[in-house]
Amino acid sequence: MGLSADQVSLIGQVFESYVMEHHRDDILAILREADEQAHYPVVVDALTLFETNMEIGEYFNAFPSEVLPVFDSALRRAALAALQESADPAQLSLKQNLHARVSELTREHIPKSKDVGHFLSVTGTVIRTSSVKVLEFERSYICNKCKHVFVVKADFEQYYAFCRPAACLNEEGCNSTKFMCLSGTTSSPTCCRDYQEIKIQEQVQRLSVGSIPRCMVVVLEDDLVDSCKSGDDITVYGVVMQRWKPFREGARCDLELVLKANYVKVNNEQLAGVVIDEEVRKEFEDFWERHRNDPLAGRNEILASLCPQVFGLYLVKLAVAMVLAGGVQRTDAAGTRTRGESHLLLVGDPGTGKSQFLKYAVKIMPRSVLTAGIGSTSAGITCSEIHYGTLCPCSIMCLLQPINPYRHDWNWLAEFKKTLT
Q1: How many CB atoms lie within 10 A of CB 186?
Q2: Whether the model pTM is above 0.90
Q3: Cα-Cα-Cα-Cα dihedral of 88, 89, 93, 94, to 10°?
Q4: What secondary structure letter does DSSP report for 273?
């Protein structure tokens, strides 16, 4: 069951009038851009849109995958209308790659199988990004009998695999099974788009005690590609979908839940750079002026305020503080560079506060990733990756839980070393 023609027409008309009323300036700004082949987003507030017409909200919640393309088509019609009504159309050019990005629907936890087909948002931390790839999303075929040309779209649920049609799709009733793919001879650039996959993890500070953060793959396309990087706290708005690899005889079918993104909002952009104003600089200078004769006392005062929920352990706090502060990269006479950042490995019994130090490091660093792994290796590994810049090296803080003394299998050590690389 899907949307009828009347429902599609209603959705298109309502959304077109909405964007003309609330986003006319955004559309005109896009029409003034010089690049006609680029992809341009228009961010739409979902709550305001649904208040305009509640029936649209019901359709959107029930059939998000069908409604979103209707929004894009209505946005292109609105752009054409704005171009025709403009007083100076010579300065404007029509753009075809317009996308409606829906926002303001919040959720904190990774969705489950019951959420498949629903549009929702997930807040998490980016822990992995793949390279940007070129994706072919449709192919054209021509029937050898009736010469009818039809388009076959890639199946998202099968990792964008193309399923060859069984017969000609001509509505006049041609059932020929012989046709040729035109994309192999004259490939059109409009059949390809940018594609990237990222993996996000639930934010640890929002989970209950003892909960292990879950991860989810997010698919980015077109203008959403390269919109975030590892360590960013983001909110992803999209449709929960499932996918599997093509079936093979004798192989098990692995089903995977993914989020096909419609809009990505980076929440920590304001923390990307550390801005030191005069007040902070003066406070820093006054602090060390007071401890000019005894700098170690100033150091101890700083350590006392580091991770205050853990009592004592000043030597461990000193090591954590040194990793957080980082160092200066050195270059010798031969041109060899030595990084200034160091790694830290904490090994200790349960209940000694190792995880507290890592959570505190994640809390005060603007870009960091906290991950935990407990598997068949009998080692619980927690790794807090602290970035000091986009292109700079990073410091890694790790802890190792007690190892089973009765197990003499050291294969876990190789896995642990892979985690650090």
Answers
A1: 7
A2: no
A3: 130
A4: S
The answer to whether 67 and 122 are in contact (CB under 8 A) is no
What is the number of residues in the chain? 421
Confirm if 315 and 303 have CB atoms less than 8 A apart: no
Distance, CA of 372 to CA of 333 (rounded, Å): 41
CB atoms inside a 10 Å sphere around CB 212: 11
Within its chain, how far is the Cα of 407 from the centroid? 39
- For residue 409, the one-letter residue type is D
Model confidence pLDDT, tens digit, residues 288-346? 888 888 888 888 888 888 888 878 888 888 888 888 877 777 888 887 877 777 778 87
Q: What is the pLDDT of residue 207?
A: 65
Per residue in 148-165, pLDDT (tens digit) is: 888 888 888 888 888 777
Q: What is the CA radius of gyration of the chain?
A: 27
Share of the chain above pLDDT 90, in %: 0
Q: Helix, strand or coil for residue 322?
A: helix
**And the tokens for 385?**
């990756």
Cα 240 from Cα 105, distance rounded (Å): 14
So what's the pLDDT on residue 298?
84
Higher pLDDT, 237 or 210: 237
CA distance 398 to 381: 7
What's the pLDDT tens digit per position in 360-387?
877 777 666 666 554 333 344 444 444 4
For the chain, the first-to-last Cα distance in angstroms comes to: 49
Give SS3 for 297. helix
Locus of tokens 């009818």: 148
Tokens matching residue 12: 């298109």
* Alpha-carbon gap, residue 352 to 119, rounded angstroms: 43
Q: Which residues pair with 394 in a beta bridge?
A: 387
Residue 340: count of CB within 10 angstroms of its CB? 15
Q: Give the angle 45-130-128 at the CA atoms, nearest 5°.
A: 75
Residue 403 has pLDDT above 60, yes or no: no
| CB neighbour list of residue 275: distance below 8 Å, 6 or more residues apart | none
- Bridge-based pairing state of the strands 215-221 and 256-266: parallel
Complete DSSP assignment for 212-249: PPPEEEEEEEGGGTTS--TT-EEEEEEEEEEE-PPP-T
